[in-house]
């Protein structure tokens, strides 16, 4: 009887320990690349992620600012779209960047989109700013295998 109780107790303790260890599915999605593409009626911005797609919010803002400091990021254009993602990061658990591209780059090959900025990467929140020549209709979608967040912005 005592042996049975010890086995049951050991199994219960092992189960609790297993619950405390985060699974790979619970890991924060990390940004690995930002790509753009020109299409006949719209410009496309693609954010490549490892892991699952993050939740996101998208809205027009008066200007793109650096998360934390609130300092404006100088970007060409007359309209600014901000994409906030959570949970998401552009670095791994050791602080090493998973996105090694530029924090700000212009997109001369596109019609409406003028520049893209990595505006924030802090405590599971990732912010991307997109500047445009003018406000336009846009759509945001998620694709899988591999995980991508796709922003299509009309000309």
Give a structural overview.
It is built from one helix and nine strands; from the N terminus they run αβββββββββ. With 155 residues, the chain is mostly beta strands. The protein is globular. The N terminus is likely disordered.
Taking strands numbered 1, 2, ... along the chain, how are they ordered across the largest sheet?
Answer: 3-4-7-6-5
Biggest sheet overview: 5 strands, antiparallel
Radius of gyration: 21 Å
Mean pLDDT reading: 87
Shape: globular
CATH architecture: Sandwich
In short:
By secondary structure, this protein is mainly β. The chain is built from one helix and nine strands; from the N terminus they run αβββββββββ.
Strand-helix topology:
Blueprint: H1 2-20, E1 30-38, E2 42-50, E3 55-61, E4 79-86, E5 104-106, E6 113-122, E7 125-132, E8 138-143, E9 147-154
Antiparallel strand pairs: 1-2, 2-9, 3-4, 4-7, 5-6, 6-7, 8-9
Features:
155 residues; Immunoglobulin-like; five-stranded antiparallel β-sheet; disordered N terminus
